[in-house]
Amino acid sequence: MIERTPILDIVTQLILLLGLVIALVPLWLVVVAASLNLQEVNTSPLPLLPGSHLIENLVSVWQRGDLGWKLFNSMLVATLVAAGKVFIAALTAFAIVFFRWPLRMLAFWAIFVTLMLPLEVRIVPTYAVAANALGPLQTILEVTGLARLWQLATGVELALEWNLLNSYTGLVLPLVATATGTFLYRQYFLTIPDELVEAARMDGAGPLRFFRDILLPLSRTNMAALATIMFLYAWNQYLWPLLVTTDRANYGTAVMQLRQLIPSMFSEPEWNIAMAGTLIVMAPPLLVVMLMQRWFVRGLVATEK
Amino acid sequence: MADITLRALRKSYGGNEVVKGVDLSVPARSFLVILGPSGCGKSTLLRMIAGLEEITSGELTIGGERMNDKEPRERHCAMVFQNYALYPHMTVARNIAYPLEVAGVPRALRERRVRETAASVGLADYLERKPGQLSGGQRQRVAMARAMIREPRVFLFDEPLSNLDATLRVQMRLELRRLHQRLGVTSVLVTHDQTEAMTMADLLVVMNGGRIEQAGTPLEVYGRPASRFVASFIGTPPMNLVEAEIAPSGRLHTELGPLPIAVERIASGPVLLGVRPEHVLLATGPDNADLELPLELVEELGATRILHARLDGRGFAVATAPGLPFPPGATLLLRLDPSQLHLFGRADGRRIDAGLVRIGEQVPVAPTEAVAVPFR
Amino acid sequence: MDKRAWFRNTPLALALAAPQLLLVLLFFYWPSGAALYWAFTLEQPWGGGNVFVGLENFRTIFGDPLYWNSVGRSVVFALASTLLAMTLGMLLALAVDRRLKGHAGFRWALIWPYAIAAPAAGLAFRFLLSPEAGMIAYLNHSFPGLWNPIVNGWQAMLLIILAYSWKYVAYNFLFLLAGLQSIPKSVIEAAAMDGARPLRRMWDLQLPLLTPTIFFLLVVNLTDSFVDSFGIVDLTTEGGPNKATELLVYKIYFDGFKGLDYSGAAAQSIILMILVIALTFIQFRFVERRIHYS
Q1: For a disulfide at B47, which of A269, B52, B182, C11, Cβ 3.0-4.6 Å?
Q2: Does position A205 have pLDDT exceeding 80, yes or no?
Q3: What's the CATH superfamily of C60-287?
Q4: Looking at the DSSP assignment, which residues form a beta bridge with residue B33?
Q5: Across the interface, do A20 and C109 touch by the CB < 8 Å criterion?
Q6: Helices assigned H by DSSP within chain B
Q7: Confidence label for B372 from pLDDT (cuts 50, 70 and 90)
Q8: ipTM score of the complex?
């Protein structure tokens, strides 16, 4: 469009520059701080250019925080959450959109409602479930009297227990149990023309074949988008891993490990080490957003709306 | 009311040139239609006139004033977009009033003008609705009213009818013409629909690949297509094109065999011979037939009937009056009228103006000026 | 919203939906129900299970000045961070949407902060805004004691607001820009032909057409400021100084897991749930009235 708006253009550029400063300066200063030695990092104001101790600090925090193992845990959990979500949500959306069955709408709403309450607000009771995932079943059996029946019949007291604390299962499953992806798929499935189903049926394909040969290939972009945001979501989790793992050495994630890097009040604060750790922990999700921004944005916009 | 001139107008995005030097002059009060296939640069050209696209080089004037660097709002053009581009959150009344609102016209005057304009396009009862509650045709009218209310010097239409169903399209076509007759505002309309172009244009421009192929009245363009492209783009079914050679003697040898027709005033060489389906005649017998082709199938259109002959995998269509049934597989005996034949260069596709005569007849048929209609 | 063509095979459909339904029952409905149970019962100190106490737990909470302190702090945090993140996000989205030279680069980089885990952002800001080192400490050389979020409650609040908003500016920017770009280009062009200049078009067209997105983001920002703030608080101020930054989720965590007061924590969870549901409900009501482009 031909438009001469010199003043507005300058103002626009200034706003953009200001935005860039706000967005990137903190990131840059983390890099700078991570490259200084103990004495440099505690001078004020902070230098604006990196020092020469970056590698040294990274190595030091890597060893001190056992970050290799923690990053592996984070990677494993985030990958499992993303993969589980992409798969389970597709199955559910398929059942809800392409089948008629008695409790379909109930199932739909039961899953839909979960969008409302994030894990954080029901954290205490969810923790109790994780402590014994069979607890609910046990309670149901006790309340209905089936447990007593069992005891009378076998002479053994029924005590179901499946402890998810300090396990990858416990880290992963509650994060998969939300409706986010299901609705992304549902919205997409609803746009698939009826004729496609009818054509597949005329060609003799059953539901599972239709799912595998037509629906999944068509959903590839949605799957990529969903996987990207679920990976970030899981990687950046903090409160839940903090609760569900007491055995931090074996099951701790990278983000949890940041807590250990807060400098002690009683010695010279090792901010350079803390920032080196922050840098390592923030790098993987940052790389995902930098390199896969298309999928990330698409996934975020599609799941939230 | 203003005239528009385009001088060597070019537009390129990066290294990709989409409008490759267009010269055109649109007299004031006329209705110009730009016709072309998608991607030919016609919409870009329209948007350059509107000021929505920058002009890479060349000059644009409206009413004699150079417009290249003027902003859209300074050009006093109104535009109707393909999707109408109504403001979805505003009522019909405010949509129509918006140009006046921006111009700071007082409310009372604005409301009066909105009522008048809306009434003139039959929207008086819909003023308080939102665009989402209107039918396609009504939205179209709102877009028209919004364009009219400013009393612009030029109307620009970007495929305004393509989102309407067939019946409504015919109706709106007439309404647009009536409106143009009433207001007399210079109008430029872009379309890919040849019927729309033929029926609405005072001046028809056919574009292809960023260039003007031909400009003229609709009948000129139909009767004397300037190129092979125009010949096959306008007309349903399209003009039959047959490869041919002009022998040194002047006689035409086509891929279907020699014709008893000679070409005058032109050197021998390869050409394309074109003939419109309605200009192919049925011969009365084998002795006066120029072509014999096997009939493949017949399309009945009611008023006319199209006979499709087979020709090396391509079709050769003949339009005739409905009559006796032809069984498929029958042989068509066809006769050509030399005055209704078109020649195009095989290499460049440009029209070749030449005298064509039936061999043995003395009187050369006058070249085709007969069909030209002087420009209004 | 239903399809015309579908399969009829109830067992298969149930089998397909079963994994998610089981997970949702186990990790959503059971815990939510358990929260209700705990909120209305109290564990006997000498064992023997829980007894029903009615609204006793809620009465205790509402009578607790510390709880109201936490509510007040949460509201301040929610309003301030939402206002800050929305305003900046909106300015940036409008600026990028003008598509001046280099806008693609800005769009690319302005989203980065959203990738950063809240605790990581928290730790970074704790350093950058610390009173002894980082960016702002030199102020304290000239004016000793001017900036010290470790002892000054409001400065601590400002610290968590800044760290949290930093991430959400990127989030809001991303959604607002997507909203702006879903406005058909021809609508903006039509307005330009009608004589409206850029600022006028922002005011008359872009902002009104963006109201659904703005409203959606307001709700998400408020909700997330209640539920997503734990990581920031835990890594920067740890609720202090003197509970000045003890937001609701942080208090639930402390009462529940450090104080082992499950019933109190559950009752607080219920209140937070009602709050979040109310916000979400308003949003769903509004979503119905979105603008559809014709």
Answers
A1: B52
A2: yes
A3: MetI-like (1.10.3720.10)
A4: B189, B204
A5: yes
A6: 42-50, 92-102, 107-120, 136-148, 166-183, 194-200, 218-223, 228-233
A7: very low
A8: 0.85
Q: pLDDT > 70: what percent of chain A? A: 98
| A206 pLDDT more than 80 | yes
Instruction: Please check whether residue B376 lies inside any domain of the structure.
Output: no
Give the pLDDT score at C287. 58
Whether residue B40 sits in one domain with residue B130? yes
Do residues B202 and B294 share a domain? Answer: no
Under a CB-based contact definition with an 8 Å cutoff, are residues C247 and C233 in contact?
A: yes
- Boundaries of every domain in chain C: 60-287
Using DSSP, state whether C294 is helix, strand or coil: coil
Residue B231 inside a domain? The answer is: no
Contact between C57 and C263 under an 8 Å Cβ cutoff? The reply is yes
Residue B215's DSSP bridge partners are B205
pLDDT digits (tens, 9 = 90+) for A63-97: 888 888 889 999 999 999 999 999 999 999 999 88
pLDDT in tens, A118-174: 777 778 788 888 887 787 888 888 888 787 888 888 877 777 778 888 888 888 888
Query: How does pLDDT run across B97-148, given as a tens digit for each residue?
Result: 999 999 999 999 999 999 999 998 889 999 999 998 999 889 999 999 999 9
Asked if B126 and B179 sit in the same domain, the reply is yes
β-pair type (B269-275, B280-282): unpaired
- CATH number of the domain within which B264 lies: 2.40.50.140
A-chain residues near C134 (CB < 8 A): 29, 33, 44, 46, 271
Q: Give yes or no for C95 touching B (CB within 8 A).
A: no
CATH number (domain holding residue B110): 3.40.50.300
Report yes or no: B323 at the C interface, CB cutoff 8 Å. no
Within this chain, do residues B88 and B159 fall inside the same structural domain, yes or no? yes
Helix C207-227 and helix C262-287, axial crossing angle in degrees, nearest 10: 170
Q: Could you report the per-residue pLDDT of B253-301, keeping only the tens digit for each? A: 888 888 888 888 777 788 999 999 999 988 888 888 888 888 888 888 8
Q: Which of C187, C196, C292 sits opposite B85 (nearest CB)?
A: C187
- Which domains occur in chain A, in start order? 6-115+178-304 (1.10.3720.10)
For residue B74, list chain A residues with Cβ-Cβ distance below 8 A: none
All residues at 6 or more sequence positions from B91 whose CB lies less than 8 Å from its CB, including other chains: B127, B128, B129, B130
Task: Write out the two tokens for B204.
Answer: 């028809």
- Does a structural domain hold residue B370? no
Amino acid A84 reads G
Chain segment C82-109, per-residue pLDDT in tens: 999 999 999 999 999 988 888 888 888 8
Least Cα separation, residue B134 to chain C (angstroms): 9
* Number of domains chain B is built from: 2
Mean pLDDT of A200-210: 85
Give the minimum alpha-carbon distance from C3 to chain A in angstroms, rounded to a whole number.
7
CA-to-CA distance for C146 and C131, rounded, in angstroms?
9
The residue with greater pLDDT, C6 or B73, is B73
Specify if B19 maps to a domain.
yes
Which candidate from B52, B53, B71 shows the least CB-CB separation from A4?
A: B71
Q: What span, in angstroms and rounded, lies between the C-alpha atoms of B315 and C285?
A: 60
B276 and B129 belong to one structural domain: no
Pairing mode, strands B291-300 and B305-311:
antiparallel
pLDDT mean over C10-22: 90
Last residue of a domain, one of B192, B226, B260: B226
- Which of the listed residues B172, B201, B226 is the one where a domain comes to its end? B226
Closest CA to C163 of C229, C254, C207: C229
Distance (Å, whole) CA C225 – CA C211: 21
Judge if B50 and B160 occupy the same domain.
yes
Q: Looking at the structure, tell me whether residues B211 and B279 fall in a common domain.
A: no
pLDDT tens sequence across C53-77: 778 788 888 888 888 888 999 999 9
Label residue A246 exposed, middle or buried (CB < 10 Å: 0-12, 13-18, 19+).
exposed
| Enclosing domain of residue B306 | 236-361
